[in-house]
Amino acid sequence: MSRATVRPLRLVRPAPADSGDRLEQVRALLRPDFVAEVWDADGQVFAPPRTHSLLGLRKCAVVDCEAGVRTPNVDLCAWCIPRFQASGLTVEQFAGIPANKLSRGEQFCRVPGCPRPSNMRIRFCFVHYTQWRKTGLAPEEFAASAAAVPLPSFGECSVVSCSRAACGRGGLCHRHRDRWQGLLKREPAADLRRWLGIAEPINVDHLVIFKGLAEQVQLELLLGLQLRTDAGVRTLVTALRPVVAVLRRTEAASLADLDDSRIKQTRHDASVLGRHLVLAVQRATTTPDEERRKDVWDLAVLGLSRRLDFTPISQAWLRETAKRWAEEELPQRRGRQAAKTSRDTVSVVGQLSACLREIRSDHGQDPAAVSRRDIIAFTNRLAHHERTGKISVKMRVQACRDARRFLADIRAMGLTRPGGIAAGLSDDFIMGRQDIPSEPDPDEQRRDLPAWLMRILDANLHVLEERSGTDMRRMNELMMDTGRRPDEICQLRLDCLTRDAHGKPVLIYTDSKNHRPNRRLPIAEATARIITSQQADVRARFPLTAVQDLPLFPRDRTNPDGTATYSEPAFTNTHRQWVNSIAHLLVTTVTGADGKPHEQVFDRLAVIPYAYRHSYAQRHADQGVPPDVLRDLLGHDKIGTTLGYYRVSEKRVRAAVDRVTAHQFDNQGHRVLHDIRGLLADEHARMRVGQVAVPFGICTEPSNVKAGGQACPYKFTCLGCGHFRSDPSYLPELKSYLQQLLADRERVQAATDLQDWAKAQLTPREEEITQLRDLIRRIEADLDDLTEHDQALIHDAVTVIRKTRQLVNLGMPGVRPAASTG
After folding, report:
1. What is the pLDDT of residue 136?
2. Which of 564-578, 629-643, 770-784 has the lowest mean pLDDT?
3. Contact 27, 12 (CB under 8 A)
4. What angle do CA 336, 339, 343 make, to 5 degrees?
5. Contacts of 795 (CB under 8 A, 6+ apart)
């Protein structure tokens, strides 16, 4: 079909004020410039230019081939590709040779003035073909002769969606006549009248015929395509055609009536496109007020993501109460997960609704009839779900808290007062503190990634680059180096790098969770070089786009001007695929309970982008960064949140103690305990309770332990006491004490105002110095005998133990070691 002159859609005009007519609303949203570019009003055809970057279907490079090219980076259609491969010619040579294939477009009789169609290569209608066969003339001669008289037209094809000329008295064009005859063979009782209304048109490759669709459907399809194009999303006409076919076959009155199940039977990309078009039009033609009146809220209309479903709440008063509560709750949240609290709470209210529906004779429809007994039934229901494994302990606690807050909030909002939605709701229909079960023990699993794992990930960043490109590698490197949240890295602007007064690099980012723009984070020069390289690449890719409009990491697809950013879900998905591909490398060697090396495999599912933030925080905490400084680095509002990164779980402490205790020595430098890995938890705890910290190790003398280290019967002569123990974690204190003894000896010996007996009393004993030196050498020699890997493990364990030693009062004497414990 040749394209008619494109003109503005006649239906496009401004919608009247306060008009509730959806058709008028859609008309008002359609832009005349878009419609003029893609719409053939005469034929009711969606006909974007073949050169359109987001809607067009490129023409095959062969001179006379009108077929479309669907494959990227290829200039030939699917029919011409095998011919080209067999030709042995270059693309340019092959494209210049006519294909001479029969056109699928409509063609008419070659007799001048004859309006009848032809489906023959010789281009005669059937009557003129019969006449020509009897003459013996060449086709051109017969067509020009006086015997070739133009014949009257049979009119247009009777199929509603078809604009072709009929080929006979049956009123159908050639193609639809063949289709109808084929249908009759399969279904002899087929209804011709219905078939004429829903039959598919004869589409040209790069066009989509809307004729036969309801007017509202046509307008909504155009609006959906306009919205996708404005968003920079490519739409293939080959995917649009099945969507239009289903709308026509089901005689849909609106795009919202699209039957997605029928599209899935054709092709996946058409099904995806259909859902996107319906969603885009729904969002464009509704308002927040209209959305709040629905039972399922599309939160995108409210500037959020996902949906909020109130349909599980069967009681009208409870459902409307939940809507009013959510209406006030949603604006109070920010960030990507702003709607999570509302979704979780509405889900819990749905469970409360189900409980009322099952246990009450009135199914909970009367708010004045519910009572404390219904709350008890609800809490018992949650307890049962926990015991049967349907929910976890944490989920039960959170559900109780959400229900308690909801029931308290709706009273504070006045919804239970006379005339309110929940008027008459009993005062005892509320969750008390006693209804919330005890908080479970904190999860002991560490959320940061160990140093050895970070080294493996860093060494395999080239795999990420090979799989997903340089941008993705640099995003991952920045996340590792800066500890920012994944969405904060995705949203970085191109000009995010600056320098402070001392010339040091500073990262400018937006704290998305707390809605604080222009945050400043000091970074290393190596990190700054990554940003500089990325800036240069982005400028080279999008030289015509203003710097202030460019992100640091523009997405690859549907982003012609480079202004769209990577999304966090896209990055997270790519990161997961990378980690899965190197999961077999996430292995280290540890010494087992039998003293032999064993492989330890790290759980790949624990390696998530957000874990880099915890690793960044833990790395700084382990290096002694003060909590207030780390709070600023992480962008926390409360110091309590930051202190969470300073806590070391019991599981982690025990692992560290187990490792270091195997290298514990007494005051004579003899190893005292080779392994405690086999001890039960209570035995392990008892062993730790039966000792107390002293300046250079631990003391096991019972009376001193009982007094918290304040009742040493031997006046803290640790090095001469058989109850004294030390290990590699105390090396800094031991060395500091040795330096102190040597310095005291030199100072006392150099004193000129002391008598000999006073010098002898004040001078540290040589035996103590010698024994201390031997203990230090013994501990160091024991570590030197280990492999480099085991030495690294001991170093990490010592870091954990010394960190807890700084934060937990272990009953140490008042004398603190002078050496740093960082």
Report:
1. 83
2. 629-643
3. yes
4. 140
5. none
